[in-house]
Design goal:
By secondary structure, this protein is an alpha/beta fold. It is built from 19 helices and 15 strands. The chain has helices at 7-14, 57-70, 83-96, 111-116, 137-141, 165-170, 180-194, 205-214, 232-247, 258-267, 281-285, 327-337, 340-350, 357-361, 363-366, 369-373, 375-379, 394-405, 411-425; strands spanning 43-49, 74-80, 103-107, 144-145, 148-149, 152-157, 160-164, 197-200, 220-221, 226-227, 271-276, 297-301, 311-312, 314-320, 381-382.
Length: 431
């Protein structure tokens, strides 16, 4: 049966507007030149797409072909760049002034950094910022820096608890765990009663955040310029992860390529639960235990800690390179790729969440039941700090997490080391 996105689900998506993002400091960009009339624009746009080349890239390439059909004078040089390589690769190219793409699919956490370095063209007053009133405000805020728009939101996301309904039912559960304590119990019950693993962890800093947020912790307190990663709240959150590993509730994590290992174990039915985002919908539904039984694939909010249920707000923005020789063509390309119609197509085919309100009610989006399923997890999304240093905060934390997962350290000394590393990144911030 086709499921549609109800008005309540749309309202849940709009709940992202509750908090607003403050702008950073610095003013690297200048006002853009007036754009040429669309029919007069010609040239080539090189686009670095950082989506998954196998499951997502083909859909974006379809939309590129639609763009070229509408604007036959503009050709698109499509390049799929692995997400893990894209940030450093773009910075190197932009700094050297050679080889940077005209348009980049940018992680929301990179925009402030790239803008502060002068690598991005300001987009206000160009066709790229089209119908801004349609955007959900918090995803749109990720593209702002110093009062100007440097990125327009392509997709939004967060983490949820993905679960195998049949395995949970065999372990005696009709519903997914709602708290971290319940998560541990359910995982141990799955392990003892089904022979499958209960929970697979992705040893990555982003995936550690639901545990930290759940206890009221965070990376930093931006307003007070304070480093909070080693606060009692953050320590309490990471201790939950440490306990999941040592108790056996979580299978022994892979320290290398842990994302692929956890994802493969889940879609093959070897573990009952993982934390992941809507970008994994298509991959999971193609897996052995879900391909012929998609209803077995469950999506729920991340379990709550003692303070709340909280999961990081993620997503991607379209940005334009400040040194592009094809600015007018790039603006039109972003406008087309980020239209409500294009977003609805992406939502329908891939299950990625739109950033424009009208896209949620478009027939192509409502045809995909996963769009509605992610409304509840999105209610727990926590806005990340939109500061130039934000992307740099992940590496020290993932290195510490790997040591913790490998049994080389414990929570308190690990987070103390991370906090010390943050002092080298965030000059003048206090502990």
């Amino acid at each position: 049966m086709r499921r549609v996105l109800t008005s309540a689900a749309v309202a849940a998506a709009l709940a992202l507007a509750v908090t607003a993002c403050g702008d950073g400091s610095g003013d690297p960009g200048s006002a853009p030149a007036k754009s040429a009339a669309p029919a007069e624009v010609s040239g080539t746009v090189t686009w670095w797409d950082t989506s998954d080349a196998t499951t997502e890239g083909p859909v974006f390439q379809e939309i590129v072909k639609d763009f070229e059909a509408k604007y036959p004078k503009i050709k698109v040089n499509y390049v799929n760049v692995p997400f893990a390589e894209a940030r450093d690769k773009f910075k190197t190219a932009a700094q050297s002034g050679s080889g940077a793409p005209d348009v980049l699919r940018t992680d929301v956490g990179w925009v402030a950094e790239f803008a502060s370095l002068g690598y991005l063209a300001p987009l206000d007053g160009t066709p790229a910022v089209d119908k801004p009133e349609e955007f959900l405000p918090v995803p749109a805020a990720s593209g702002k820096y110093n009062g100007k728009t440097y990125g327009v939101p392509q997709v939004t996301d967060t983490l949820g608890l993905l679960y195998n309904k049949e395995l949970l039912k065999k372990a005696g559960y009709d519903e997914p765990p709602a708290t971290m304590a319940d998560l541990k119990k359910a995982a141990l019950d799955v392990k003892s009663k089904t022979g499958a693993g209960g929970l697979a962890l992705n040893v990555d800093a982003y995936f550690l955040l639901p545990f930290i947020y759940g206890e009221g912790g965070d990376f930093v307190d931006v307003q007070n310029k304070k480093i909070t990663i080693s606060s009692p709240q953050s320590v309490a959150g990471v201790k939950i992860v440490e306990d999941l590993i040592t108790s056996g509730a979580a299978v022994k994590p892979a320290l290398q390529d842990s994302y692929t290992n956890a994802e493969t174990a889940f879609k093959d039915g070897k573990v009952a639960m993982i934390f992941n985002g809507p970008w994994s919908n298509a991959d999971n539904l193609g897996g052995k235990v879900f391909k012929d039984n998609p209803d077995n694939f469950g999506v729920a909010p991340v379990p709550a800690g003692s303070a709340k249920a909280g999961s990081p707000l993620g997503g991607h923005d379209y940005t334009v390179y400040a040194g592009s020789k094809n600015l007018d063509a790039s603006y039109l390309f972003v406008q087309f790729m980020d239209s409500a119609e294009s977003q609805a197509k992406v939502a329908g085919k891939l299950g990625l969440l739109p950033t424009r309100q009208p896209a949620y009610s478009a027939s192509e989006a409502t045809a995909n039941p996963k769009i509605a399923q992610w409304a509840k997890p999105m209610e727990t999304a926590v806005e990340r700090p939109w500061i130039p240093e934000a992307a740099s905060l992940f590496q020290p934390l993932v290195e510490g997490y790997q040591k913790l997962a490998g049994g080389q350290t414990a929570t308190e000394p690990m987070l103390t080391d991370v906090a010390t590393a943050y002092q080298g990144i965030l000059k003048g911030w206090s502990l």
